[in-house]
Amino acid sequence: MKYQESTIVVRYAETDQMGIVYHANYLVWMEIGRTEFLESIGLRYFDMEQEGYISPVLDVHISYKQAMKYGQTAVVKTWIKSYDGFRVVYGYEIRQQDGEQLHIAGETEHIAVRKDDFKPVSMRRTFPEWHEAYLEAMK
């Protein structure tokens, strides 16, 4: 199974008054991880959008294990958890750079839709190169 690790230094602007990462910022980090994962397997959301399609989030699950703090370095590990030719679920783990402490476990579910009317499309038929890359990444 293919994994991608993205490194993020916790910035002051991402923390709350207590100096811990504001919970919604983990979603941004997951998006960074997902984008870098796709690029690592030769795909880009930009290319999909240029063809008139987008890939909205259908569902998000996040389990907060331990708060991250300003000045720490996070590593976002991203992979494809499941894919059926239509829906794709990405898995995420966010840990400190040393890898010992799990801070966040999560997943996001996506489909591809036409940009103009949000009608869902089959990845297998509409984006065969994505379909093959997803299957290869899951081996």
Automatic annotation (TrEMBL):
<keyword id="KW-0378">Hydrolase</keyword>
<comment type="similarity">
    <text>Belongs to the 4-hydroxybenzoyl-CoA thioesterase family.</text>
</comment>
<dbReference type="InterPro" id="IPR050563">
    <property type="entry name" value="4-hydroxybenzoyl-CoA_TE"/>
</dbReference>
<dbReference type="InterPro" id="IPR006684">
    <property type="entry name" value="YbgC/YbaW"/>
</dbReference>
<dbReference type="GO" id="GO:0047617">
    <property type="term" value="F:fatty acyl-CoA hydrolase activity"/>
</dbReference>
<dbReference type="InterPro" id="IPR029069">
    <property type="entry name" value="HotDog_dom_sf"/>
</dbReference>
<protein>
    <submittedName>
        <fullName>Uncharacterized protein</fullName>
    </submittedName>
</protein>
<dbReference type="Pfam" id="PF13279">
    <property type="entry name" value="4HBT_2"/>
</dbReference>
